[in-house]
Amino acid sequence: MKKQLVYDLPTRTFHWLFAGLFITAFAIAKTIDDDSPVFAYHMLAGFLLGFTVLLRLVWGVVGTKYARFASFALHPPELFAYIKGIVSGDKRRWDGHNPASSWAAIIMMGCALGLGITGYLMANGQKERFEDIHELLANGFLVVALFHIAGVVLHACRHKDGIGMAMLNGQKPELGSNKPIASARPGVALLFLVLIASFAMYLSNNYNTQNQSLQFFGSALQLGENENDEDKHGAFENDRKKYRETDDDDYDDDHDD
Hints:
2 domains, two-stranded antiparallel sheet, mainly alpha, Fumarate Reductase Cytochrome B subunit, 3-stranded antiparallel beta sheet
C-alpha cells in the first residue's frame, strides 16, 4: 500500500510531548502525597503542558494542511457515521484526522488548557474553589485519551492501514485525490522544541525548591505545602504540647494535695 506524507514533524512532536507531559503530571498527582516536595513537579509539568498546547493552537492556524484545525472533521453527523462504520466494517479512509481523533484532540487540548488555568488559580490561593474542577478535567482527559487509544487500535484492526504508525512516520495510505504535504517542516519542529525547552528552563530557574514556590510572570505561586499551613500546624502542635504540660502539672498538684 503506497503511503503519503500527511502529518508534519511539529504535529508529531506535539503529539508525543502532549501525551508524555500529561502522563507525567497525572502519575505524580495520583501516586505522590501532596505534602511531598515531588508533588510540585506535577504542577510544573502541567504548566509546561499548557504552554505546549498554546504552541499547537498557533500551528493549528498557520501550519500545514492536515495540522490545521480547519481540516478536522468536527461535524457530529460525521462522527456518528464514523463510529457506525467502525462497527459495520466501512472501509472509508480520511486524509488527516478522522472524526473520532478530531474530537478527541479538541477535547483533550481543551482539558489541558483548563487544567493549566485551574492549576494556576489553585496555586494562587484558590485551591478549595477550583480543586474539584481541576480533578474533573484531569479524569475527563484520561477517559478521552483511553477511548482515543482504543479507537486507534480498533481502527487499525478493522482497516489494516497502519494508522498506528502515522504519528511516528507521518504517513498514511495514499488516497489519490488529495496531495501530500510538501515538507515535514523540521525547522518549525526544532523551533517549537527550543521554545518549550526555554519555557521549561524559565520554570526551573524561577522555582524555589526550599519553599516550593514559583515566581510566574510577576505572580508568586505556592506549588507545595503552604508555609502558612506549616506555621498553623506548628502552632497547633505547640498549643497541644502546652496543654499536655498544663494537664500534667494539674495532675501532679492534685496528687500532692
